[in-house]
Amino acid sequence: MFVTPAYAQAAGAAAPAGGGMSDIFIQLMPILLLVVIFWFLIFRPQQKRLKTQQAMLSSIKRGDTVVTTGGIVGKVTKAVDGEDLEVEIATGVKVKLVRGMVADVRSKGEPVNDNKPA
């Protein structure tokens, strides 16, 4: 009584082949779009920042003025690759720092030549 002939014909017909896959793809499209947006807005810039930070830490050498993550400013007196740094924070006051705790290198100093005759 309430069924129209067009509805009755569509209900009895078989679903077209492959129709289910396109429906799943259409439903997953917003999620995939969000993943791509997060990748370009969050993950890529974070990876770039990490690479520049690692490059800065590996290029620290003797004579550089550094700022620690605690805000202490000092001059590097001893720097060995892959190890701790020795930083002079006041005249005669030297502290050991882990390389990862350096927040910024303020000025690049010229390395001191220890081989010069006095």
UniProtKB/TrEMBL annotation:
Residues spanning the signal sequence: none
Membrane topology type, per the record? Single-pass membrane protein
For this entry, list what GO says about its biological process.
protein transport
A single GO CC term for this protein reads: plasma membrane
Q: Which InterPro entries match?
A: Preprotein_translocase_YajC
Where does the protein end up? Cell membrane
Record's keyword annotation contains Transmembrane helix: yes
Q: Where are the transmembrane segments?
A: 24-43
Kindly state which keywords UniProt assigns to this record, in alphabetical order: Cell membrane, Membrane, Protein transport, Translocation, Transmembrane, Transmembrane helix, Transport
The keyword Transmembrane is annotated on this UniProt entry:
yes
- Indicate the quaternary assembly: Part of the SecDF-YidC-YajC translocase complex. The SecDF-YidC-YajC translocase forms a supercomplex with SecYEG, called the holo-translocon (HTL).
Q: What does the UniProt function comment say about this protein?
A: The SecYEG-SecDF-YajC-YidC holo-translocon (HTL) protein secretase/insertase is a supercomplex required for protein secretion, insertion of proteins into membranes, and assembly of membrane protein complexes. While the SecYEG complex is essential for assembly of a number of proteins and complexes, the SecDF-YajC-YidC subcomplex facilitates these functions.
Q: Which family does it belong to?
A: Belongs to the YajC family.
Report the protein name in the record.
Sec translocon accessory complex subunit YajC
Protein source organism: Devosia psychrophila
